[in-house]
Amino acid sequence: MIEPSRSLEQRTADVLARLREDVDLWVASADAEGNAYLVPLSFVWDGAALTISTPRASRTARNLMRAEWARVALGLTRDVVIVEGTVETLAIGTDPGLEDAHAAATGFDPRAGAEEYVYLRITPREIQAWREANELSGRQLMRAGRWLVDGRPRS
Amino acid sequence: MIEPSRSLEQRTADVLARLREDVDLWVASADAEGNAYLVPLSFVWDGAALTISTPRASRTARNLMRAEWARVALGLTRDVVIVEGTVETLAIGTDPGLEDAHAAATGFDPRAGAEEYVYLRITPREIQAWREANELSGRQLMRAGRWLVDGRPRS
Predict the structure, then answer these.
(1) Whether A40 contacts chain B with CB within 8 A
(2) Which residues contact B105 (CB under 8 A, 6 or more apart)?
(3) What average pLDDT does chain A have?
(4) Confidence grade of residue A151 (pLDDT, cut at 50, 70, 90)
(5) Does residue B13 sit at the A interface (CB-CB below 8 Å)?
(6) Under 8 Å CB-to-CB from B6, ≥6 apart: which residues?
(7) Which residues of A fall within a CB distance of 8 Å from B112?
(8) How far apart are CA B140 and CA B148, in angstroms?
(9) Are B122 and B70 within 8 A, CB to CB?
(10) B148 contacts chain A (CB < 8 A)
(11) Can you tell me the ipTM of this complex?
(12) Per-residue pLDDT tens over the stretch A18-57
């Protein structure tokens, strides 16, 4: 059975819960020649941005550092959250508080490894969320960095 | 608790079950300028290839028709199946049997709509599957179009 379409307020609350509670997301990226890439990575949400970490030499890091823009997906294919936003690159040691939060949220501390990792902080500009086709209308929750619900929801 | 790492045979069987039984996957694509895109789409597995369908004018269709290569993900972020393969574009009416199978598997018949859809048939060349970090080793199940288990598994 298809559930009724959720309100903007409910979708926004659901998305914020996912941002706070989920551990993993799918990251799409591409190189300058237009070769697409896709991997799952763990993230932490700090109330304003999603931070992932991956080896500086990896395809995902190189692609995102080049594009300075990311499109990521949280949730399931029938409970979709799509986030697009700017990418800020942070070398290890830049923001110890964020690095501690990332390690606590993901269970993985890239500061401990032999390989050089980089943190990539994605600040959402566009957020969409839908479950089934009946929710495609009204799927936009954030546009140009602004939540569409009245007032900025508590993150 | 982390489960023990699965054997190549078990992973291959699990992946084939997902290909037969799952309905949705994540499709990454990119345009010629290196702008990445990511959407969930429904698919059907015919034993040799995954077929999706999306409007011919959509970003995903345009990107995949250009690249003639796709990277898609099935499953969850902690039960990952990554498939990369060639993309063949089939206009509506090209393969009625496949179109019927797609409609039956996905519950959606693009032949019925007003907008022009296209079928994109992705033939796997590389398949990887893993659950947790302990399965990253041995994640390759297909290389250059050949399953790595002895003999070609029944699809």
Answers:
(1) yes
(2) B23, B42, B43, B44, B45
(3) 93
(4) low
(5) no
(6) B14, B131, B135
(7) none
(8) 8
(9) yes
(10) no
(11) 0.91
(12) 999 999 999 999 999 999 999 999 999 999 999 999 999 9
Tokens of A31: 């190189």
Kindly determine whether residue A38 and residue B30, on different chains, have CB atoms separated by under 8 Å. no
For residue B31, which residues of chain A lie inside 8 Å, CB to CB? Answer: 34
B9 lies within 8 A of chain A by CB:
no
Structure tokens given for A82: 């799509």
- Are A25 and B77 inside 8 Å of each other by CB? yes
Q: Which of A31, A72, A80 sits opposite B34 (nearest CB)?
A: A31
Joined together, the tokens standing for residue A39 give 């991997």
Residues 83-142 of A with CB under 8 A from B: 108, 133
Identify whether the C-beta of residue B5 lies closer than 8 Å to the C-beta of residue B17.
Answer: no
Note the pTM of the prediction, 2 decimals: 0.93
pLDDT at B140: 95
What is the C-alpha to C-alpha distance for residues A68 and A29, in angstroms, rounded to an integer?
10
Looking at residue B3, its pLDDT comes to 83
In sequence order, the β-bridge partners of residue B79 are B76
Work out the end-to-end distance of chain A between its first and last CA atoms, rounded to an integer number of angstroms.
31
Q: How far is B42 from chain A (nearest CA, A)?
A: 9
